[in-house]
Amino acid sequence: MTILDDLTVSTAAPDLRRAAAELRRIKEEVSRGPDPEATRRQHAKNKLTAHERLAVLFDEGTFTEIEPLRRHRATGFGLEDKKPHGDGVVIGWGLVHGRTVFAYAHDFRVFAGALGEAHAAKVHKVMDLAEAAGAPLVSLNDGAGARIQEGVTALAGYGGIFRRNVAASGVIPQISVMLGPCAGGAAYSPALTDFVFMVRETAQMFITGPDVVQAVTGEKITHNGLGGAEPHATASGVCHFAYDDETECLEDVRFLISLLPSNNRELPPAASADDPADRRTEALCDLVPAEPGRSYDVRDVIGELVDDGEYFEVHEAWARNVVCALARLDGHTVGIVANQPAVLAGVLDIHASEKAARFVSTCDAFNIPLVTLVDVPGFLPGVDQEHNGIIRHGAKLLYAYCNATVPRISVVLRKAYGGAYIVMDSRSIGCDLSFAWPTNEIAVMGAEGAANVIFRREINAADDPDAVRAQRIKEYKTELMHPYYAAERGLVDDVIEPAETRSVLIRSLAMLRGKKAEVPARKHGNLPT
């Protein structure tokens, strides 16, 4: 039985007020859902309903729903007797911090949020509107995948979503929020978007579930162990942000949107800045040890540099030897890439290269200037790294920087050795401005390693090898690794005091704000895979 089946057919003259009242009643019932028990089950799992989630995401009272009365046309397997309005997905637009944003939200209470033909058509509609309007698109995912009863038409619906994901890539920000299950082919839509948020315990993503994994491989694992927020945030890198509850998650989605432009033709929105642009960052001299081998947390450096110490770290728990974060400098959004000496001494490896490359590419797509903080001893050596393609994956980061046309500024904090120095947005690959602190060491390799290679025979033949080695190391540092060597050769634009770093970055970014970069005429580049 449907909502309209209950209506009493009136023989009285048409009354617009009565019709409007009846429409309100129908829409209220659609919003409440077909079954109060289904809502209770949703809440029992610490999950909000689709409309409740949208109320958290959007500014109060601004969400406009479209196609709330749509119903499927499928028959067979009992579907002809179950035609709830909405068909398991809520679509529309509203305001987030006063800016237009589009969204669709699966309603798990209706067909477990499974996608059928009508459901897919609604999603296609809102995706097309978002791209046409040039506004961000947020998907709130909580669905059981393709609606099996509708067969191949459901699969075709996913194809239409994937095609639109790709068409909108780099045009409008696409944000996926995982609030429940997302299995099989459905998981590829979030993977095609710019950012993925997940809620621990309630959200899972996987191509094949635990039962299939056990049947094929013999491995026994839980749903969360296989595809929950934790493994995707720490091991696979599929998840950018993980949270304990939905409200906190959706609040951070709002914050991310505030840092991003509406589309690739706009600059990110500027905010008023109370933090003085000329604030000296004296604390940096104490945060960063002068000795190149001593560890520190580069996030403390980022916090000292950016407005009010506030930054939004992306992929915080994955590939932690590089830090990627969005922040503001003098009220303007910047993307920060920084080596992390506190993890693996800050070396670049396969995962760090992939993480940073994706972040650089995302910032470039949405006109977000890049600031790179360099303190890198090189690429991680090892058979595992070489056999798993560190050359290919390291090339992704190199490609991303070389391909980026946004303003790019690098700051060498301490050491920058070998190919890793080049890859971390050096002058030679096109950064607009390069600065260095007076403790910088820019070289092919560390002085100890260089001396052992260059003077190997002399050291081995000496009566006192240790003394000769120490002398040659000192000479190498004096000749090729003093802090002004790169500046003397124009490889850095200036050597600056750490305390001046914030003001130098802000002045430089202001100068580069109108940067125009010519790109070659080509269909597209061939990204290393």
Automatic annotation (TrEMBL):
Q: Which InterPro entries match?
A: AccD/PCCB, AcCoA_carboxyl_beta, ClpP/crotonase-like_dom_sf, COA_CT_C, COA_CT_N
Superkingdom in the source lineage: Bacteria
Q: Please state every residue range assigned to the domain named CoA carboxyltransferase N-terminal.
A: 7-272
Whether Transferase counts among this entry's keywords is yes
| Pfam families cross-referenced by the UniProt entry | Carboxyl_trans
Sample GO molecular function, one term:
transferase activity
CoA carboxyltransferase C-terminal domain span: 276-523
Keyword ATP-binding attributed: no
Query: What cellular-component terms does GO give this entry?
Result: acetyl-CoA carboxylase complex
Keywords (alphabetical) are: Transferase
Q: What is this protein called?
A: Methylmalonyl-CoA carboxyltransferase
Organism field = Streptomyces roseochromogenus subsp. oscitans DS 12.976
